[in-house]
Task: inverse folding
């Protein structure tokens, strides 16, 4: 089945130690998103790619970077994780930036920072 | 600024009907989504409204009034599995690809 896959599902890292979260999709969607969701809060958009066009949200910390080497894969790099970065990170895709279709979400990666 | 408001929690009884409201103030509007999210899981799509009126899909219906900046999600014949958070999200701004989520309404279903 076509889907959005995130690895790992659970990630533990140490304060200040770089970590990379990965997302892949078999939907062949042009748009990929990264959201951060803390407990009992709304998913917060960090950035998104339309194809190779990178779009950063104004309030996304510089500590967060992203890469999209091809249509299928997108990575979230946290250069120096702090305790406040512990959250669920959700990857989502949509077929087109002008599409009114829904976003398809991956299962998320829960990040713990020790 | 962008703001989406929905109640934090609601409780309803199995078999009953519940309405979850959402109000929004956004710069631009290109549609409103409702998502269901079970604890520890990713959101799953329920509905999309871009025109005023009611969209019905099985036990779930969603209503939109653009002039009022208002939507609701109506759940009928509630089942225990409907216990979840329900997220209202708006595609907003000048760019169609930006979706802003509300904090979600946690729905508790009692037997």
Result:
């Amino acid at each position: 089945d076509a889907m959005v896959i995130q690895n790992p599902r659970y990630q533990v890292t140490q304060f200040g130690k770089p970590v990379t979260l990965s997302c892949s999709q078999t939907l062949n969607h042009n748009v990929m998103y990264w959201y951060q969701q803390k407990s009992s809060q709304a998913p917060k958009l960090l950035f998104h790619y339309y194809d190779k066009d990178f779009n950063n949200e104004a309030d996304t910390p510089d500590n967060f970077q992203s890469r999209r080497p091809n249509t299928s894969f997108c990575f979230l790099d946290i250069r120096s994780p702090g305790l406040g970065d512990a959250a669920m990170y959700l990857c989502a895709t949509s077929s087109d930036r002008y599409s009114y279709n829904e976003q398809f979400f991956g299962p998320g990666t829960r990040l713990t920072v020790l | 600024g962008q703001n989406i408001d929905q109640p934090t929690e609601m409780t309803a009884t199995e078999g009953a009907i519940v309405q979850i409201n959402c109000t929004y103030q956004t710069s631009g509007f290109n549609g409103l989504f409702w998502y269901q999210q079970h604890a520890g899981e990713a959101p799953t799509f329920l509905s999309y409204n871009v025109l005023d009126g009611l969209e019905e899909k099985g036990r779930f219906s969603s209503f939109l009034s653009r002039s009022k900046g208002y939507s609701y999600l109506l759940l009928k014949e509630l089942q225990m599995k409907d216990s979840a958070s329900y997220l209202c999200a708006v595609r907003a701004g000048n760019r169609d690809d930006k979706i802003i989520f509300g904090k979600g309404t946690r729905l508790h279903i009692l037997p």
User: Anything to note?
Assistant: The longest strand of chain A covers residues 87-94. Chain A touches chain B through 28 residues (CB under 8 Å).
